[in-house]
Amino acid sequence: MSYCVHCGVKLASYETVCPLCGTPVIDPNAAQGTDQPRFEDYIETTDRKVDRHFLFTLISGLSLIPFIITAIVDYCLNHSFGWSLLVLGGEVVLWAFIMLPYRFSFAHPSTYIIFDTLAVALYLLMITLIFGMKWYLPLGLPLTVLSGLLLYVFVRILFEGAHRKLMTFGLLSFSLSLYLGLIDLIITLHSTGKFGFRWAYWPFVPLFTIGIIAMLFSRSQRISSWLKRRLFI
Amino acid sequence: MPNWFKLDNAAQIYPPVLTGQWAAMFRLSADLTEDIDPQILSQAQERVLKRMPSFATTLRYGLFWFYLEHIDGQPPIVEDTNNPMQKINFRKNNHFMYRLLYYRNRIAVEFFHTLTDGTGGMTFLMTLISEYLSLRHGLQVPAGKYILDCCQPPQQEELEDAFMRYGQNKTLGIAENNSYQYWHSRTDFNKMMIISGSVSTEQLKQLARSYNAPIGTFCAGLLLYSALQLQKKDRRKRMKKKEVKISVPINLRQFFPSRTVRNFSAFVNPGLYGILGDYSLKETVEYVKNYFGIHVNEKRQLAKFSYNVAAQRNPLIRITPLILKIPALFIAYFTAGDLLYCSTISNLGNVSLPEEMAQYVERLDFMLGKAIMGRSMLGCVSYNGRTIFNFTRNIRETELERVFFSTLVDLGAEVFIESNGRE
């Protein structure tokens, strides 16, 4: 029978270190094995991994139920498939946003954005085709692609330039200014038929200027260190 | 007997937080004087399941609530493991919500908390052992506090939801501050670290008496004191300001007579602000004693659990589909449950068995299952002149246990420590 020299507790003879403090048990006179270990050696394992393939299949399958129900209702009422296809399109978009990253691991997260943009663009195309609208090519598609592009750029900048904070900030500000400028350009062209800006000057000018200045400053060690000194929180 | 049961009020919270890897579990075990014969144990289990039908059930999803459905057969009897209270694999366990294990001379039962509480679990284990002994040695153990007569049919009162029976309209809000959480690093997911400390009950009684408190209050005070010592060493400023709270389950049967073997317990969370200064053990025990005086009484507990009963009776909540209740209860478990304390002490008290049976039972153990958050939990039970403190944890650090036991040693108690290893 041994005692822990640190905690003062009496220890079972099979303990080689004190379970409370980790102090090794040194007792040359201890009779080995007089106490039976209270616990079996076998460790039961619980599989921590969720079966992603199964869940992916299950949720993908279950998500078809709302579409099937709405399709039946749509067909019964209108004898054709119209608005029920919107449900399908919406589910495909959700699937691309949620289930795709859940099931497939791409090397870079920006890859998901390509699929998300594609899903949204196709959904908008479906809407315009079902309702016979004509805004898809001049407005819907460019805005979707532009937004996807901005997100793609943001993700790449954030993942690859995290160690250079000022440069990252400059690039984000710069690309946001370009995005807002192009958005305004597309909307103005669509609504008036002319190239031009209506509101983008206001966010474009400060964001563009800040972006350029930040990128320039980030190249100078002296200025960036001065900024750090002055602006730390 | 009905072939299905509504979940009792306290059991409602556990199924929504049931994940593929985690379930709220607890374990009771008894060491006999001889090695266990699993075949006889299986026969005993069959008889006990007929007598206690609420244990022969499995969890099912209804449209509005979970419910328990009767199932035939019995769970397989398996050998004990080094890491008890892993989440039950219901499929491998024949869909039963408790596991029956044996190891040499030990019989252990691990319960999913939806099924029962400590008192109900102890009744199941003791009835099982009495049946086992009667089959093996022809013993006739008289029915008593924890032992049911398996020759009798199940009684309706043993299966009742006592919360619903006693719940009233006078309620008391349950909003509380979150507790300090001590710093920890998690062990491997499959590990379940156990430190078991055994102290003479007589010695403990004398110690508690010197602090002018019952054993249960003294132990709760000691655990709170240990947690306060952890906060004192903690360097995180945010955590320094938090109240150190522990959770203490209360057996409601002491205030509201019931023979139910299902859940009928509540919690109180005594706590102290370490930032106010150093509390001695005497002050801590005194505080816990006063806290229990205020909170652990019939009126206060009735008003507290009536709050949950009122929620369960609310027509709006009743017609809310289960699929919406699950996330709500999941959030409630973390915000109004798990964050309110940094450790738990569950004391089953002194268990005495009929003499015929006591000669075959050497030791009883009570363990609490893994917490979702990283922490140590303490389950204790006194039997045969020894009080066994079982600390179970899913973290590497053992500081709480060390302070707890070394304080007992400092007070003059002789503590015998066993464990299943150290990570």
Detailed description of the structure:
The complex is a heterodimer of chains A (233) and B (423). With 233 residues, chain A is mainly alpha-helical. Chain A has 8 helices and 2 strands, in the order ββαααααααα. Chain A has helices spanning 52-62, 64-78, 84-103, 110-131, 136-160, 165-192, 201-218, 221-231, and strands at residues 2-3, 10-11. Chain A has a two-stranded antiparallel sheet. The mean pLDDT of chain A is 85. Chain B is an alpha+beta fold. Chain B folds into 2 domains: 4-164, Chloramphenicol acetyltransferase-like domain (Chloramphenicol Acetyltransferase, 2-Layer Sandwich); 193-360 and 370-419, Chloramphenicol acetyltransferase-like domain (Chloramphenicol Acetyltransferase, 2-Layer Sandwich). Helix content of chain B is 33%, strand content 23%. In chain B, strands 8, 9, 10, 11, 12, 14, 15 and 16 form an 8-stranded mixed beta sheet that branches. Chain B has a 5-stranded mixed beta sheet with strand order 5-6-7-2-13, with helices on one face. In chain B, helix 5 (215-233) packs across helix 7 (281-295). Chain B starts with a strand and ends with a strand. Chains A and B meet through strand 2 of A and strand 8, helix 12 and strand 16 of B. Strand 2 (10-11) of chain A pairs parallel with strand 16 (416-419) of chain B, so a sheet runs across the interface.
What descriptors fit this protein?
heterodimer, A: 233 residues, mainly alpha, two-stranded antiparallel sheet, B: 423 residues, alpha+beta, Chloramphenicol Acetyltransferase, 2 domains, 8-stranded mixed sheet, 16 strands, globular
Layout of strands and helices, then pairs:
The complex is a heterodimer of chains A (233) and B (423).
Chain A: E1 2-3, E2 10-11, H1 52-62, H2 64-78, H3 84-103, H4 110-131, H5 136-160, H6 165-192, H7 201-218, H8 221-231
Antiparallel strand pairs in A: 1-2
Chain B: E1 4-6, E2 25-32, H1 38-51, E3 57-61, E4 66-70, E5 77-79, E6 98-103, E7 106-112, H2 118-137, H3 162-166, E8 193-200, H4 201-210, H5 215-233, H6 237-240, E9 243-251, E10 265-268, E11 271-273, H7 281-295, H8 298-313, H9 315-319, H10 322-335, E12 343-350, H11 355-358, E13 361-368, E14 376-383, E15 386-393, H12 399-410, E16 416-419
Parallel strand pairs in B: 5-6, 9-12, 12-14
Antiparallel strand pairs in B: 1-4, 2-7, 2-13, 3-4, 6-7, 8-15, 8-16, 9-10, 9-11, 14-15
